Amino acid sequence: VIEIVGLQQITEVPDMPEYVMGVINLRGSVIPVVCVRRRFNMPPKEHDERTCVVVVQIADISVGLIVDEVDEVLEITADQVTPPPRVRADGASRFVAGLGKVGEAVKILLDVERLLRDGDIQQLAQIDE
C-alpha cells in the first residue's frame, strides 16, 4: 500500500472490465481505479464519506482500489501470517493471500497482485501510458 486517499472525481475509460471504474488524477499521475466490490461480484453500495481509495503498487503500476472504508492501518509481520484456508479455487477466496493474527483478531490479507493479474493488469498498465 502506497497511500490512502479520499474518493475523488473518476474519469471513465471505454472498453475496460466492468470493475475498472476509470482513472483519477493523483498529484499529476493518472491512476486506474478498480472497485473491489465489483471485482468480488458483491452487490453495489452507495459511496459515502467513509469510501476511500487505497493506492497500491504492483509491477511498477500504481492502481487505486475503491473500498467501503478503512478502519485502521496495521503492519503485520510474516510470523503473524498463516496460509489461507483451502476452499474453492475459482471463488473470491483465490484472492486471499493469508490470515493475519493481530492479538485476538484475524485479518484477511488480500493478494492484490492476483486480484489485478486475474483481471489482466496489462490492460490497466495501458491506461497510464
Which segments are poorly predicted (pLDDT under 50) over 5 or more consecutive residues? none
Strand order of the largest sheet: 1-4-5-3-2
Secondary structure class reads mainly beta
Radius of gyration: 15 Å
- Main pleated sheet: 5 strands, mixed
SS elements, strand count: 8
Number of helices: 3
How much is the average pLDDT? 86
Helix content: 10-25%
Please describe the topology of this protein.
Elements: E1 3-6, E2 20-26, E3 29-35, H1 36-39, E4 52-58, E5 61-67, E6 81-82, E7 96-102, E8 105-110, H2 112-117, H3 121-127
Parallel strand pairs: 3-5
Antiparallel strand pairs: 1-4, 2-3, 4-5, 6-7, 7-8
TL;DR of this structure?
With 129 residues, the chain is mainly β. The protein is built from 3 helices and 8 strands; from the N terminus they run βββαβββββαα. The protein has helices at 36-39, 112-117, 121-127; strands spanning 3-6, 20-26, 29-35, 52-58, 61-67, 81-82, 96-102, 105-110.
